[in-house]
Description:
The protein is of the alpha/beta class and 238 residues long. The protein has two domains: 4-119, Response regulator (Rossmann fold); 137-235, CATH 2.40.50.1020. It contains seven helices and 15 strands. It has helices at 13-24, 38-45, 64-71, 87-90, 105-116, 179-183, 224-235, and strands spanning 4-9, 29-35, 52-55, 76-81, 95-100, 137-142, 145-150, 154-160, 163-168, 172-175, 191-195, 198-201, 207-209, 212-215, 218-221. Helix 3 (64-71) links the parallel strand 3 and strand 4 (76-81). The longest helix has 12 residues, at 13-24. The two termini are 30 Å apart. 30% of the residues are buried.
Amino acid sequence: xxxxxxxxxxxxxxxxxxxxxxxxxxxxxxxxxxxxxxxxxxxxxxxxxxxxxxxxxxxxxxxxxxxxxxxxxxxxxxxxxxxxxxxxxxxxxxxxxxxxxxxxxxxxxxxxxxxxxxxxxxxxxxxxxxxxxxxxxxxxxxxxxxxxxxxxxxxxxxxxxxxxxxxxxxxxxxxxxxxxxxxxxxxxxxxxxxxxxxxxxxxxxxxxxxxxxxxxxxxxxxxxxxxxxxxxxxxxxx
Length: 238
């Protein structure tokens, strides 16, 4: 199992120091960074592929809940807070655990072991190969109506919990669907799943940089589960 890439966000330096020491004693964790600033952390987390975020709730500038609203399902969360009243609210997000301060190493260790089950290796997901001659468009349901979209206009797909956001060249459409269903409708030669929350149209990729790719100004992370398959595609086009 690959290390779990984690980040610590807490406005208390002492809390960051403690959790940093805890992570050093758990081989499964790879601490990518830590910050006392929610704004600074957000700038990092929107471009870095992070598996797990240890996040405080009450912070200046932006609260932990607001950060989770912004990041959505880009990562998973373990809340670290001195206030128990946020526990129920936290579970509306992809919260794996709620650690109440002061946090003991024993409690932290148990929380990480619980989180490990969310990061077990999975087989890479590819789109079903469509037969030649199939349609280059499909109909999607949004706002109670069926809308025709041309696949050449579809740049990438973003997962939003129970919904998918289809990013077209000139608009975005939110549909109630899953990756498993839409994968059956798209040609494998043109589309690839690169992250648990993203699939891209391959000919729309402008730049590739380490573990992320760019489509226009959009930065899309490449997840560990999909990186080997994606790198293989890159090598075939060099």
